[in-house]
Request: fold
Amino acid sequence: MTTQTEYRSQLHHRQKELMVKWYERLNEAAETGEPPTVSMMISGNCVELLEGFSAVPIYPEVNALQLAIRHQSLEPILLAEELGYAADNCAYVKADIGAYLRGITPTGGKLPKPTLVLCNFVGCNTYLKWFEHVAEFTGAPLYTLDVPFMRYDEPTHADIEYVVKQLKELIKRLEDLTGRKFDYDRFKEAVRCSSEVENLWSRIKHLAKHSPSPFDAYFDAITLMGPLYVYRAKPEGVEFFEIALKELQEKVLNERDDGEREQFRVVIEGPPPYPHFRTFRDMFAKWNATAVASTYSTVGGLWEFGARHDPSTPFESVARHMLEHNVTNRNYLQRYDQIKKYVEDWNADGVIIHFVKSCRLFSAGQGDMRDYFTKTLGIPTLYIESDLEDPRYFSEAQLKNRIDAYFEALEHQKLSHRGIEERRN
Ligand code: SF4
Reply:
């Protein structure tokens, strides 16, 4: 029997309203040319800067994942492959390009030609080519904002200055393209909103330390991530995360730990297989397993360890966010450390590594990661494979077998420990 771990509430309704409103604004931009729009990447985005122009972000990654979750990604992927995109290209890119050429959008509404294609390149070099292609196909101008990779524990002063200079150059570019003057006060206010949202989101993530956790920090976190990217720098974002925090705090207060609803606590590394999202989730629900933390939920920002935007130094804090406070621009050892902290501080039983065929950024080196967690740290770790966008790479029976075997072993381990404890007492 499958246990439903998902729950629906006010935050889900509000999330839907906000995302619909965002797509309506994009449709309006496509129809009328206003408001200005900027295509950007989620990781290390500088959405606060767009607020200074009352511009709306377009996130090709969000569009691609929406297509996948609605089972609409295969047709555009096949079209892109017919055009010459290789089988092992990132499937987000293929879905996005194919959907653009075929006129498929996640809502059926229109997507505008971006005022600017902003390649805020962090970590993954696929971004560079993807955004060159977006600019080429849409005919929109391209600006590549080069964000140095994290080579040390902290970005250097020169790194921050280098990004700030480019942000200022970007402002000039947007002033020329939109005919609008950059509103510095609005930008500062956007940075303030972001810091509030980050604080609320961080408090939500820490709620998962409770047992049972009031939400699944992988599967449910995805509901919260849309507003996080689109509305982080807006009062609507603050209001949304206040609702979410309040609801989840109430859940903590009202839910008794009967030991049944949450039998396993895991940390998940890597993006989910969106085309088979429900099926994949049910494989964990069957074992009453909850993800108490995930690296994927930090692609847009890594705030549960204390980082925040700072309105007193708005440009520097946007630069720091782009450089340092998102998982994709950090090195592998920093990711090890992040997962280790989750296991220890969120009290997890094990780690699940989901290798995503399309995504080299997340997946390269995950074999070593599994060895590190299993052999060096002794943490039960499962390594599984599929894809985040391409429905063809999902072997349901094989995944199910591996996940079942993992939880059976964990269960056995827990029972043995309990037996030892009881004999001791
Ligand atoms: S390779 Fe991964 S990180 Fe890079 S664009 Fe594709 S999905 Fe995103």
User: Anything to note?
Assistant: The mean pLDDT is 94. DSSP finds 16 helices and eight strands in the chain.
